[in-house]
């Protein structure tokens, strides 16, 4: 009987193990269900996807890497089987050898076929499976394409199934740039470094893998977006770790506000909490200021590990049942020490800085990079713009409580305001237990009597007799007996409360109900659970208020008057001064996280773009109160006031003064000497096609990725592309300028026929100028969503790397496309755009 063929014969035949450090192919027992992905920079960069099957690693070369977008089908070329020992290989294969290049262990974990399927399905040309890796998670599909004539290798497609782990288009390959084993970049592996070398420590990249965000990411780059010192808060600033701060509360309304003035979050069914961090320790306070750290010990333990000196983080603690937050499950978890999760949605203070005067967007942008992607006890509560009604419908359909809508530009006031609105899918609120009715069936009680605060006493609000199991009823009865009193707590109809046992009003219950009668009594009510985080004196009737007409508008309400609204600003289009002002008001919610609270230079064209235009960066005292000034030291030692804006009024006020374009520093007011972004402006020679610029941008992205830096493309609105690199504000201007200079010159030196890094016009013919000069103190770059003083009124627009491949002009969107830009900002393709907590590598 002939021996079975060696499945690793081809693998061994292709390699000279005297020259390569790859392991020799020998069969060995394994776990049976491992998988790994190796990023491989050979003749062409690709990702080798491997599944353990029948004692070997079945392998595919995925040319553009795996994508979390279910709409993306990535070509996966079947390669030879690899030995199980290859699962840990990371290093360099010598040039000239098969597969010569750098190999990174990019992901690893376990896999399993979908129920009812098996690995044998590969022989049929398809495999439906689940991954549990460090980066790749959820359901995936491999499908073999129909063989073509003379095809040497099998061509397959790798696709993500649309599930909870699905996400943005290229979030995996574009942002996950370091080894899951050693933390090294491709350059560090190629250079043989044994550990990561970063300026100030390892780069913590925002990968987004394996973490389902309820909506979409927003915020500024580098984990430390624009901010200003507190200017509106009264009283002492928050002192993280030392005292409780009053929380901001929502106003209940009957409809979802529309327009880009609002951001929308999921309303979680749990306990509101404030986490206070200081000196490596964390406390957890309830909404009323009770210290419940012992009840939420696991959350406090996780929070204490956050990379901050001190912080105050606002959020909601929930427990899950069947994948949804459930209040009853939370109550049980508190009693038994079960699993709970803190959803963080606001940041009041950070490392001694009071953030309450900042906008909601700025505070969330400062918060997001602090919350780790792989910590189940802590989650970042994301949001959407311009799609609140759709989010509300989804939440209601999924059985969740509702949504919270917040004005994007509002400060944190620590009280109930109409800047935070809540819209509920069902009728639920807290009531005080004022008594109970005995049961005639030997149960603990027949029903609870409810009340709400009115004046100095309580008003009768009805009764609830369902929603209790025996354990809850027994616990409640013990509590009620301890609060027994002889006199009535409320004035109620005698027929409704005949035989009532009255109690001191201290217990607060969460109640669901169908409706409230005209006299304020509940109908069809059901008990949800006790609220030990809220005092009885604070429980008042909560009636949804009509949404004010001003909040229904499609754009933020501004207080700035725009004169000459009908004046044509772009004479080759019908865009007027009023149109431009309305555009900036509408997109302020998505523009200000990038352009707000940083020194700006304005391109002013008072008579329209065809007349004289000029830059202005200093305050001349003519813009009004909505445009602010920040003092900055000049080279000669003097101080000049520079302009900045922090809300929609500021943007519109600039338009009133003839502004078309907004250009900003690479640093915020809070960290003027430490940039939070790099910008490489790819400026093509007149004779080049836009396709050449796109290819060049992709090349820069790959080179930056080799160094461990995540980057994002932005259409300039002119003829080029900006490659934006977020930074944690750590390195100062000289170091950032030096890095940008050396990086650009290295690219130009490697491909002189393609790139040039000097401004000289004579040297730019037929080439692309890598403008790195924007990365020096005082230099500016056009801000995302800024209009451009060019024909057709185009705007600078963020795009994903996948989108860029199919776009034919850098002026794809214009001032007339504000609604589309707002909708796009919450799309999967722009998930995480401009967000990465990373520092410059040591080169």
Automatic annotation (TrEMBL):
One of its GO terms (biological process) is DNA repair. Its EC number is 6.5.1.1. The keyword Manganese applies. One of its GO terms (molecular function) is exonuclease activity. It comes from the Bacteria. CDD domains: Adenylation_DNA_ligase_LigD_LigC (cd07906), OBF_DNA_ligase_LigD (cd07971), PaeLigD_Pol_like (cd04862). The keyword Acyltransferase does not apply. Its cofactor is Mn(2+). Keywords: ATP-binding, DNA damage, DNA recombination, DNA repair, DNA-binding, DNA-directed DNA polymerase, Exonuclease, Hydrolase, Ligase, Manganese, Metal-binding, Multifunctional enzyme, Nuclease, Nucleotide-binding, Nucleotidyltransferase, Transferase. It catalyses: ATP + (deoxyribonucleotide)n-3'-hydroxyl + 5'-phospho-(deoxyribonucleotide)m = (deoxyribonucleotide)n+m + AMP + diphosphate. Residues 189-241 are annotated as: Disordered. Residues 333-459 form the ATP-dependent DNA ligase family profile domain. InterPro entries: DNA_ligase_ATP-dep_C, DNA_ligase_ATP-dep_cent, LigD_ligase_dom, LigD_PE_domain, LigD_pol_dom, NA-bd_OB-fold, NHEJ_ligase_prk, NHEJ_LigD. It is an enzyme of class 6 (ligase). Pfam families: DNA_ligase_A_C, DNA_ligase_A_M, LigD_N, LigD_Prim-Pol. This is DNA ligase (ATP). It comes from Sphingomonas aurantiaca.
């Amino acid at each position: 009987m002939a021996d079975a063929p060696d499945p690793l014969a081809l693998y061994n035949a292709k390699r000279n193990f005297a020259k390569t450090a790859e392991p020799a192919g020998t069969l060995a027992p394994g776990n049976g269900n491992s998988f790994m992905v190796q990023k491989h920079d050979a003749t062409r960069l690709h990702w080798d996807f491997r599944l353990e099957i029948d004692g070997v690693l079945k392998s595919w070369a995925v040319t553009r890497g795996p994508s979390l977008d279910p709409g993306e089908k990535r070509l996966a070329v079947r390669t030879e089987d690899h030995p199980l020992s290859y699962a840990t290989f990371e290093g360099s294969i010598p040039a000239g050898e098969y597969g010569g290049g750098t190999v990174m262990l990019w992901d690893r974990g376990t896999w399993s076929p979908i129920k009812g399927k098996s690995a044998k399905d590969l022989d049929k040309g398809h495999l439906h499976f689940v991954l549990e890796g460090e980066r790749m998670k959820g359901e995936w599909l491999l499908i073999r394409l129909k063989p073509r004539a003379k095809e040497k290798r099998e061509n397959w497609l790798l696709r993500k199934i649309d599930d909870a782990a699905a996400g943005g288009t290229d979030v995996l390959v574009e942002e996950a740039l370091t080894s899951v084993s050693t933390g090294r970049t491709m350059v560090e592996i190629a250079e043989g470094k044994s550990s990561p070398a970063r300026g100030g420590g390892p780069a913590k990249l925002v990968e987004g893998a394996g973490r389902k965000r309820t909506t979409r990411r927003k915020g500024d780059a580098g984990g430390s977006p624009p901010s200003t010192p507190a200017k509106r808060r009264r009283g002492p600033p928050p002192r993280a770790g030392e005292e409780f701060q009053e929380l901001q509360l929502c106003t209940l309304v009957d409809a979802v506000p529309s327009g880009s003035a609002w951001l929308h979050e999921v309303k979680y069914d749990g306990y509101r909490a404030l986490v206070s961090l200081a000196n490596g320790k964390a406390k957890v306070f309830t909404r009323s200021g009770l210290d419940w750290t012992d009840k939420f010990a696991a959350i406090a333990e996780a929070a204490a590990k956050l990379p901050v000196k001190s912080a105050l983080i606002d959020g909601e603690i929930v427990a899950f049942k069947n994948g949804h937050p459930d209040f009853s499950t939370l109550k049980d978890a508190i009693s038994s020490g079960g699993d709970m999760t803190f959803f963080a949605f606001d940041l009041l203070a950070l490392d001694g800085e009071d953030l309450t005067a900042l906008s909601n967007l700025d505070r969330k942008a400062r918060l997001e990079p602090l919350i780790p992607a792989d910590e189940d006890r802590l989650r970042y509560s994301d949001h959407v713009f311009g799609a609140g009604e759709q989010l509300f419908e989804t939440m209601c359909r999924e059985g969740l409580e509702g949504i919270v809508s917040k004005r994007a530009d509002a400060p944190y006031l620590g009280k109930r305001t109409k800047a935070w609105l809540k819209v509920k899918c069902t009728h639920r609120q807290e009531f005080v237990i004022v008594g109970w009715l005995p049961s005639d069936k030997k149960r603990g009680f027949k029903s609870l009597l409810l009340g709400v605060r009115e004046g100095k006493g309580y008003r009768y609000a009805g009764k609830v007799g369902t929603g209790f199991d025996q354990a809850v009823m027994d616990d409640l009865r013990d509590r009620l007996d301890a609060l027994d009193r002889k006199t009535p707590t409320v004035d109620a109809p005698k027929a409704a409360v005949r035989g009532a046992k009255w109690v001191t009003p201290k217990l607060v219950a969460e109640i669901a109900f169908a409706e409230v009668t005209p006299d304020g009594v509940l109908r069809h009510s059901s008990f949800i659970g006790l609220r030990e985080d809220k005092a009885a004196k604070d429980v008042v009737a909560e009636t949804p208020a009509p949404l004010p007409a001003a909040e229904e508008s499609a754009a933020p309400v501004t207080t700035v008057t725009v004169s000459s609204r009908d004046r044509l600003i772009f004479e080759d289009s019908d865009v007027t001064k009023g149109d431009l002002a309305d555009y900036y008001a509408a997109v302020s919610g998505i523009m200000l996280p990038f352009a707000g609270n940083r020194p700006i230079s304005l391109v002013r064209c008072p008579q329209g773009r065809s007349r004289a235009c000029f830059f202005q960066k200093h305050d001349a005292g003519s813009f009004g109160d909505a445009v602010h000034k920040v003092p900055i030291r000049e080279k000669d030692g003097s101080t000049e006031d520079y302009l900045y804006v922090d809300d929609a009024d500021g943007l519109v006020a600039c338009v009133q003064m003839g502004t078309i374009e907004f250009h900003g520093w690479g640093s915020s007011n809070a960290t003027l000497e430490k940039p939070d972004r790099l910008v490489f402006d790819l400026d093509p020679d007149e004779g080049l096609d836009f396709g050449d610029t796109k290819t060049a941008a992709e090349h820069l992205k790959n080179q930056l990725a080799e160094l461990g830096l995540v980057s994002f493309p932005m259409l300039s609105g002119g003829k080029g592309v900006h490659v934006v690199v977020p930074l944690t504000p750590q390195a100062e201007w000289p170091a950032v300028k030096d890095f940008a200079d050396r990086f650009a010159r290295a690219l130009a030196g490697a491909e002189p026929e393609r790139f040039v890094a000097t401004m000289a016009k004579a040297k730019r013919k037929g080439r692309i100028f890598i403008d790195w000069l924007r990365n020096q103190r005082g230099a500016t770059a056009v801000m995302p969503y800024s209009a451009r003083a060019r024909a057709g009124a185009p705007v600078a627009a963020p795009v994903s790397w996948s989108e860029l491949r199919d776009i034919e002009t850098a002026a794809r969107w214009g001032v007339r496309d504000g609604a589309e830009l707002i909708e796009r900002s919450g799309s999967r393709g722009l998930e995480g755009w401009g967000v990465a907590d990373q520092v410059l590598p040591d080169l």
